Predict the structure of Thioredoxin reductase.
Amino acid sequence: MLYDVLIIGSGPAGLTSGIYTSRAALKTLIIAGKTWGGQLMLTTEVENYPGFPEGILGPELMERMKKQAVRFGTEIRDEQVTGVDFSRQPFTIKTERSEYQGKSAIVATGADTLWLNVPGEKQFIGKGVSSCAPCDAFFYKNKNVIVVGGGDSAMEEALVLTKFATKVTIVHRRGKFRASKIMQDRVMKHPKIDVLWNTKIVEIVGDQKVTGVRLQTVNSKQQIVKETKQIDGIFVAIGHSPNSIIFEGKLALDQKGFIKRIMNYLAKPDLAPQDELPASHFRSMTSVEGVFVAGDVHDHQYKQAVTAAGYGCEAALEVEKWLEEQNEHGK
Ligand code: NAP
């Protein structure tokens, strides 16, 4: 079966692409991954997605997007992509179960949790080490926990944990958070949260489960101080890395592995950088013509559900336009 569009990934970017390409009467398949829905499936309340003034649960938002895509004819398979061939048209995408062909593709594979890579971390994942407070906070009722990181994710995790834990300590490697002002204010005002600045986790210790962490702190005299802190759980919230391994050598990636968007001047290949952009340039096209990218797998700056959805829309509109141009040119 030849699809007009193969979409890899089923977070806000992939599902929004599906809604748009299906509504454009393009035969669309989303290869959703084994666990569909992306990172929002791991969150609780989403307060900043427009249209939901009271907030909405992450999994519910994703269910709604999925329903909307299916309503317009998007097919969705919960399969894991194992390989891609973008070297010739039509493109081929292999999963553990099947093989699909498409005239175009949108890569929307998102990003994954970054870990600290310290001794004890791997060993205790699920036994006191977590990356998802909304998933695991319940298990820390009346316990003491640590959250690592200084960005919005760390603030969010800490606030979620206060609903259950007795005490939440944020451990941050610098003396200043990078999180948004509103999140910092909420954290700093919260009576259950305190912060250990200029502090690193060097080891996670325990027996059957986590019992403590070894910390390394720089004190006011710039001396390194080591101490062990007894805790019941540690939540790592230090960012994400793009899910792009299967595209290595197939699409251009940046140094951190994010997929590059190559502004594509198909109408005027001899266009100089200072010239005005022609009508038909494709902002979301990758290094391979006909393969587009959307969402966190290329976006290391905003990483919001709403921007991912926006990028998904952009990629879908560009796929539609690119396929039209292919038909006009009899390709
Ligand atoms: P982030 O902004 O990249 O922050 C990562 C934090 O972890 C930084 O404070 C960083 O420290 C620290 N860190 C990184 N590697 C570390 C390591 N190996 N050991 C110790 N600490 C380490 O990531 P994020 O918080 O996941 O946020 C990503 C994006 O999503 C941001 O744009 C954010 O605004 C957005 N976001 C928004 C919301 C919301 O609006 N509700 C919620 C979550 C995320 P340094 O500061 O020293 O670099």
Q: What stands out?
A: The chain has a mean pLDDT of 92. The chain has six helices and 21 strands. The radius of gyration is 22 Å. The longest helix spans residues 305-328.
